[in-house]
Specification:
The protein has 400 residues and is α+β, with helices and mostly antiparallel strands. It has helices spanning 2-34, 101-136, 142-176, 226-235, 391-399; strands at 41-45, 48-52, 55-64, 67-71, 76-81, 88-89, 94-98, 178-180, 185-187, 197-198, 208-213, 218-225, 250-254, 263-270, 280-287, 299-305, 310-315, 321-323, 326-332, 338-349, 352-357, 365-368, 380-383. Among the domains are: 41-54 and 310-388, conserved putative lor/sdh protein from methanococcus maripaludis s2 fold (Beta Barrel), CATH 2.40.420.20; 58-65 and 216-305, Efflux pump adaptor protein, beta barrel domain (Elongation Factor Tu (Ef-tu), domain 3); 100-176, Helix Hairpins (Orthogonal Bundle).
């Protein structure tokens, strides 16, 4: 019995120690929770609401407004070349000279024939005048008088024919043997060297000497699908600018080594039929090119207005995250908790990204500190002021 009474106090001591240890652990956990890290600090911004126009982008090529093949119109030996390959030429500049001596000789011969024909005409006119008195006096017959009238008419026709031959010879000498540029533009390389015989056969077998392409302005051709064509037609108001060319709607363009659509132009033509094989229709825009940077055959990307003006929400690109193929943003709710929202992106406008779906006007979007925030966790949000409108938007607001 003494042994039993001695063991009970020991068991009580063990139980008390265990309870004391558990209490100590609970206090430690409470101290750990009380001393945890604060919610991460982030910067939020309210989406900007702005009137925008959707933009469609297409790839196309530059083409010259005018292209001229300089071909020989008379046959002869090429005697002079008056340009350097690839230089800019003006309308009327002398380009080629074909040996002019044969044409000068031919002109002198035609002039001599004309002098002879005029002398014959003068003789027949005098003979006809004498015949009028003779036939009146019954000295010659009516038949003889008619023969003199016929001879005079033949002589007059011969003069007209010789005058035409002289004009043709002058044209060969002064125009066709000296080929001049018909347009302003850049000339390509010469196709024939001095001393070669060039052909000016009127049947079409003429010698190509060079090609000239106009540079300023320059056209840009591209194609777009039938659905886009219908959309352009439907959102265009009567009398307003439309992407189908009516009204000269403004467009912008970037080259393959550029990051901005800095070249400004306007639509000037849309084809009158949709291609049956591809289901597309051809469009064309025109751009100023004073420095000659834009060259026929060069690729580019054109941006065409694809909708009527409408209101849209815009946020900074830095606020957009990627989850596989989907885009999302983090918004802070009223309780200070970050929530994930999936969004659909539109174009860039004034440095901000258009959000076409998934975002509300009053959402507080995390624009800085996105890597520190997690969906479902509390954050400490500081609101960022709204960005100023782009210059063109501000100008339009003042004008309104």
């Amino acid at each position: 019995m003494a042994i039993v009474h001695a063991a009970r106090p020991a068991a009580g001591l063990l139980t008390a120690a265990a309870l004391s240890a558990l209490a100590g652990c609970g206090q430690g956990q409470q101290q750990t929770q009380a001393g945890g890290p604060p919610p991460p600090a982030v910067t939020v911004a309210i989406p900007v609401e702005r009137t925008v126009v959707d933009q469609d982008e297409y790839v196309g090529r530059f083409v010259a407004v005018d292209t001229v093949e300089v071909r020989a119109r008379v046959s002869g030996y090429l005697s002079e070349i008056h340009f350097t390959d690839g230089q800019m030429v003006k309308k009327g500049d002398l380009l080629f000279t074909i040996d002019r001596r044969p044409f000068n000789i031919a002109l002198e011969q035609m002039r001599a024939n004309l002098t002879q024909a005029r002398a014959n005409l003068a003789f027949t006119e005098a003979d006809l005048a004498r015949g009028q008195e003779l036939v009146h006096n019954k000295t010659i017959t009516e038949q003889s008088y008619d023969q003199r009238i016929q001879a005079n008419r033949v002589a007059a026709a011969s003069v007209a024919a010789q005058e035409a031959m002289v004009h043709s010879a002058e044209l060969d000498l002064n125009e066709y043997s000296q080929l001049r540029s018909p347009i302003d533009g850049r000339i390509g390389d010469r196709r024939v060297s001095i001393g070669n015989l060039v052909s000016g056969n009127v049947s079409g077998n003429t010698t190509l000497l060079a090609t000239i392409m106009s540079v300023d302005p320059i056209r840009f051709e591209f194609t777009f699908d039938e659905a886009s064509y219908l959309r352009y037609q439907r959102f265009a108001r009567p009398g307003a600018q439309s992407a189908t060319g009516e009204g000269g709607v403004p467009v912008s363009l970037e080259l393959i080594d550029e990051r901005e659509f800095e070249h400004k132009g306007k639509m000037d033509f849309v084809d009158n039929a949709i291609d049956r094989s591809s289901g597309t229709i051809r469009g064309r825009a025109v751009f100023d090119n004073p420095r000659g940077v834009l060259t026929p055959g060069m690729f580019g990307r054109i941006r065409v207005p694809g909708s009527a003006p409408h209101s849209a929400l815009l946020i900074s690109d830095a606020a957009i995250g990627t989850e596989q193929s989907r885009k999302f943003v983090l918004v802070v709710d009223e309780g200070g908790v970050a929530r994930q929202k999936y969004v659909k992106l539109g174009q860039l406008d004034g440095g901000l990204r258009v959000i076409t779906d998934g975002l509300a006007a009053g959402d507080k979007v995390i624009v800085k500190g996105l890597m520190r925030a997690r969906a479902g966790q509390k954050v400490t949000a500081q609101e960022e002021p709204a960005p100023p409108p782009p210059p063109r938007a501000a100008d339009e607001a003042k004008a309104g």
